[in-house]
Amino acid sequence: MSLLTVGSVAFDALETPFGKTDKIIGGAATYITLSASYFTPTNNLVAVVGDDFPQSMIDTLVSHGVNVDGLQIRQGEKTFFWSGKYHNDMNSRDTVEVQLNVMENFDPIIPDQYQNCQYLMLGNTAPAIQHQVLKRLTNRPKLVVLDTMNLWIEIANADLKSLLKDVDVLVLNDEEARQLTGDYALVRAAASIRAMGPKTVIIKKGEHGALLFHEDRIFAAPALPLEEVFDPTGAGDTFAGGFIGHLAKTDDLSFDNLKRAIIYGSAMASFCVEKFGAERILNLTQDEIQARVDQFVRLSAFSVEM
Prior knowledge:
nine-stranded mixed beta sheet; Carboh/pur_kinase_PfkB_CS; kinase activity
């Protein structure tokens, strides 16, 4: 089934205990679409870049089957840029520099050929922009997945809560779930979020896995223990891409398949952290992905003898 992703395509400059980069391709929509490309053949993108964004990077997206008809290129303007430095524990980071550039006035234009998308991934941008996308779609998608962050919970809370009424799945981390609800207990926080609109809530817990809340059921997905985490940038977006990519491929929204989608998303995220930026997820094979999923299965499989 067709997938539409709306979000940022950007430049990142990264520094971790393992080294540093100059400007490399980044942005939420970049990671989401690259990750989803391993699952669904109809992978549409709406984003904006400046005329400083290299054609070679656009070609990289196209080579992965991403339809870039919805990628605006603003002449005379610069692409969104983020620079960050990670601490030794790799769980915390400092933002060194942010240049909003074209994202400051991003107006998401939906091409006609995207209008009948069945699956919509609203990558992390301002809630007002995300809501605009929904309003501009002629037909409501079968599934709308929303990613957000602590910044929008803090400065655009009313816009975010209005948007939540119109989405099916909310993806956020544990700190953000607590911030949004004011409740430290994640089970209660998820229930509060579901009361705001989303039928399904996914709470990411970094190196401790992810929690899926759907109706009255909960699924806890493990994180794969890795010897080294090289660069966690984009891991959450890569997770989201694997998650919605699997759902778009299978067109099955049952609880059991949501659980499988969580595992596929987690597998994709585990690849992402192994190298800088999106480098690791550019050249995966289906055999590699399935082998990584099998690792997740073995990690949590057990039997009970009575």
